[in-house]
Design brief:
Largest sheet: 2 strands, antiparallel
Strand content: under 5%
Strand order of the largest sheet: 1-2
Structural class: mainly alpha
Distance between the termini: 57 Å
Number of helices: 15
Radius of gyration: 29 Å
Order of helices and strands: HHEEHHHHHHHHHHHHH
Mean pLDDT: 83
Helix content: 55-70%
Low-confidence stretches: 7-11
Number of strands: 2
Shape: globular
Length: 328
C-alpha cells in the first residue's frame, strides 16, 4: 500500500496538470466562435440600423401624447400638459362607439381568421391528388398579394345593389338587393368576411406546414385500432397542430384594436360611419383632415398600443398556464 501511494499522487498531479493545460488551450468564445460568426453579425448591421432608425427612432414622438404640441415649437419645445390629451380623447362622444366598432370588426376577423384557415387546412389535407391539392392551395393564396386599393374597387362592383353579381344572384332566388357597403348592419359583416376571404389562404399554408410535422405512424396505429378519418382528425391531426393554433392566436391578439385601416378606408362612406368608423380611421382624421390634431392622434395611437400589449401578454400567460405552451 505504501508503494502505491506515491504512484496515486503522481497520477492525480498529472491529471490536474493535463486539465490545466487543456483549459489553457481551450479557445475563448471571443477568439474562436465570434471570429467565425463575425460575417453574419456584419450582415445584420443594415437590418439593425433600419429597425433602429424607422422603428425605435420615431418612438421619441410618443412625447406628443403628453404635450400641447405645436408644429412651430416641435417636440422638444412644446409645453407639457400631462394627461389632458387622454382626457379630451376619452370624453369625445364618438370615441367609445369607435372602440366598440373596432372590437367587433377586429374580433370577428381574429376568430374567423383562426377557424376558417384551420378548417380549410384540415379539409385540404384529406385530398390525396397532389396536383389538385397544390392548385387549390395556390388559388386561395393569390388574393393575399392584392392590395385593398385593388380589392376595394372589385368588391364595390361585385356588391353593388343595382348591378352587382352578388345581388343579381340573390334576386334570382327572390331576395331583395342588399346594400352591403351602405347599410350600417351589413357593413361590419362585409368587412369581416372580405378580410377572411383575402387572408385565409395564407393561414392555411401555415397550418398545412404544421400538419407535415405529425408522425405518420400515429395514423397507421389509429387505423389498426379501427379509428375512422373523423376520429383520426379529432384525436391526432387537430392535437398535432394545436400548438401552432395557439401561437397564431397569441400573435393575432396584438391586433385586437386593429380593424384594418387599408380595408376600411377604401370601402367605408359617411352612410356607415355609425358602425364602420374604427380607431385607425379616427386617428387618420385627427392627423390629416381639417385642423391637424397631432397630439390627440398620438394619444389615441399610444392608447391602442398599450391595450394591444396588455392583450398579447395576457394571452401569452394564459397559453402558458392552460396548455403549457411557451413562445420564448
Amino acid at each position: 500500500m505504501k508503494r502505491l501511494y506515491p504512484v496515486i499522487c503522481f497520477e492525480i498531479e498529472r491529471t490536474d496538470n493535463e486539465m490545466q493545460q487543456s483549459q489553457k488551450k481551450k479557445p475563448s468564445y471571443w477568439s474562436k466562435d465570434f471570429k467565425k460568426e463575425l460575417p453574419f453579425y456584419l450582415m445584420l448591421i443594415p437590418a439593425f440600423v433600419l429597425v433602429l432608425v424607422y422603428s425605435y427612432g420615431p418612438m421619441v414622438g410618443i412625447a406628443m401624447a403628453f404635450q400641447d404640441f405645436r408644429l412651430a415649437d416641435g417636440i422638444f419645445g412644446s409645453n407639457f400638459n400631462g394627461l389632458d390629451n387622454f382626457r379630451t380623447l376619452f370624453s369625445m362622444p364618438n370615441f367609445w362607439p369607435v372602440i366598440r366598432n373596432t372590437l367587433i370588426i377586429a374580433l370577428g376577423k381574429m376568430i374567423g381568421g383562426i377557424i376558417v384557415p384551420v378548417g380549410f387546412a384540415l379539409l385540404l389535407n384529406e385530398i390525396r391528388h397532389m396536383g389538385f391539392k397544390k392548385s387549390i392551395q395556390t388559388m386561395v393564396y393569390l388574393p393575399n398579394f392584392l392590395s385593398w386599393v385593388i380589392l376595394a374597387s372589385i368588391f364595390i362592383d361585385i356588391l353593388s345593389p343595382s348591378d352587382g353579381v352578388v345581388n343579381h344572384m340573390l334576386g334570382m332566388i327572390g331576395i331583395e338587393p342588399i346594400f352591403f357597403l351602405g347599410d350600417t348592419t351589413w357593413f361590419p359583416i362585409t368587412m369581416i368576411f372580405t378580410e377572411i376571404w383575402r387572408m385565409f389562404g395564407f393561414g392555411a399554408i401555415i397550418y398545412l406546414a404544421a400538419l407535415t410535422g405529425i408522425d405518420p405512424t400515429l395514423y397507421e396505429a389509429a387505423q389498426i385500432d379501427g379509428a375512422n378519418r373523423i376520429k383520426q382528425t379529432l384525436h391526432i391531426t387537430f392535437p398535432g397542430i394545436l400548438s401552432t393554433v395557439i401561437l397564431m392566436t397569441v400573435l393575432s391578439m396584438s391586433g385586437v384594436l386593429d380593424g384594418g385601416f387599408d380595408q376600411i378606408f377604401n370601402m367605408y362612406n359617411p352612410a356607415v360611419m355609425e358602425t364602420g368608423d374604427i380607431l385607425d380611421t379616427l386617428i387618420f382624421r385627427f392627423g390629416f383632415q381639417g385642423t391637424p390634431q397631432w397630439a390627440l392622434s398620438t394619444a389615441a395611437n399610444l392608447f391602442r398600443s398599450v391595450v394591444s400589449t396588455i392583450f398579447v401578454v395576457t394571452s401569452y400567460i394564459l397559453a402558458d398556464r392552460l396548455v403549457g405552451y411557451r413562445i420564448f
